[in-house]
Input
Amino acid sequence: MVAPLAMPPSAGWSPMQNSSCRSKLLVQSATAVGDFGFSSLALVSAQARASAGSVPRSYAGSETNGGFGGTLPSLGHVEIVGLRPRLHLVRMEFGQVYLWRDADTLTLIDTGVPGSGPEIAEAVRSLGLSPSAIRRIVVTHGHEDHSGSAAEVRSWHGAPVHAHEADAAVIRGEARRREPVLTEFDRPIWEQVSSLGVTTVDVPPAPVDVELQDGDELDFGDGARVLSVPGHTLGSIAVYLPKHRVLFTGDTVAAGQPGEIILGVFNLDEGVMLDSFHRLAALDMETACFGHGDPVVTGAGTAVRHAAATHQKRQPI
Output
């Protein structure tokens, strides 16, 4: 049975006040976004659900995750959700990242838009740890909402940045990212993202300390495997933890409408990306963590396989 993470209703967009980059993101209504049917996609949805004031930090403790759970104090514009005992989703004022915990050390999966560092640090402290507990940063691809705060987080204590070799130059600021081949399916979402200014924010260049390739193993989660999943970008990766049956998909897979799993949007090559989608669908997974939208805590394998099998080709613009 698929158990998508329960989310509170969206509260509308709130001003981005944490940095000059964030100030470029325009305040928009989440209601209009919902009309597109993508109320779960982070860049154009209720993930900026934090209005002025605080959002409760909640743990999804239930039979779906072995009873792990409980309600914790609010964190202002940050919401942290415990998906599994060692896995946390961090919803920030804009976007989301993941923290995997091994004893008293953390691995950060993606970094959000530029200026997300304070929110990430606050989330880490809420777990009873110092930001120095972040021992590695894994960037799933070189887009601004995933690599945007990599340089900032690395600057705290030197946590090395890991990214695929094909996206490394973009993350380092040595090359411009390639523009996606938009489809009719993408169009309304792209228009909304563009109106928010997300596609034009200045991303601080970040060193890429470790260039990854398909099949590399990382020293967290009892052996994390890097999977090359091109299509969204040339260097998109997923990270798979076989022992825990947890998959971080990056933007290859996303959550669309409630309970719906879809191929991600804004892709370079849908055909190549669909091959990547099928590769991920073949994995033995229980929990799937998407770059955008609600994670699936249990039953993810069945859900992702169904989504890959029923995907309908999108019409290019």
